[in-house]
Write a structure and sequence with these properties.
With 166 residues, the chain is α/β, with parallel strands linked by helices. Helices cover 35% and strands 20% of the residues. The protein contains 8 helices and 7 strands; from the N terminus they run E-H-H-H-E-H-E-H-E-H-E-E-E-H-H. A 7-stranded mixed beta sheet has the order 4-3-2-1-5-6-7. Helix 7 (143-151) packs across helix 8 (154-165).
């Protein structure tokens, strides 16, 4: 899986209430959630994010609650991938479960600026900052996790796996 997009850069400890404020949790509709994604820390995000854009963040991205609304809102907004120095454990697992690609790479995050163009090869675990002509290596996920993300998330992967088994 390959992605190419403009970066949106955020700092440390971006929590799930900042990703999708609790006042919007009366819905689970991905499109509605996407309309309010990141609005409390970046009012321009929801209206200006483009399909394929990439979020780059510092340490502990997605800390806070365990709700899946946060990664769902990001994925529904069109973000193709999140690269961070580290993720909160529950957000990390929820992102994989819904099929939102994530990578940890401290060097890529440190070097990236907002609006840099990044290219990501999820299978190889590589990140290229095309704006700065720099290349980074991250640990790729095992094949079964890549298949899960490629399928669009755990439930779609399970459905597909059951169907293929028959």
């Amino acid at each position: 899986m390959n992605f190419k997009g403009k970066t949106w850069k955020y700092g440390d400890n971006v929590n799930t209430d900042e990703i999708i404020p609790a006042r919007y949790l009366n819905t689970s509709d991905p499109k509605e959630l996407a309309e309010h994604c990141m609005e409390d820390i970046d009012a321009s995000f929801a209206k200006d994010v483009k399909e394929g854009d990439i979020i780059v963040a510092q340490e502990n991205f997605g800390c806070g609650s365990s709700r899946e609304h946060a990664p769902i809102s990001i994925k529904a907004s069109g973000v193709s991938c999140i690269i961070a120095k580290s993720f909160a454990r529950i957000f990390y697992r929820n992102a994989i479960n819904i099929g939102l690609p994530i990578l940890e790479c401290k060097e890529a995050v440190s070097d990236a600026n907002k609006e840099d163009i990044l290219e990501v090869d999820l299978s190889a675990g590589t990140i290229s900052n095309l704006t700065k002509n720099k290349f980074y290596k991250s640990s790729p996920f095992p094949k079964f996790i890549q298949d899960l993300i490629s399928a669009g998330g755990l439930m779609k992967w399970v459905s597909k796996s059951i169907w293929l088994a028959h």
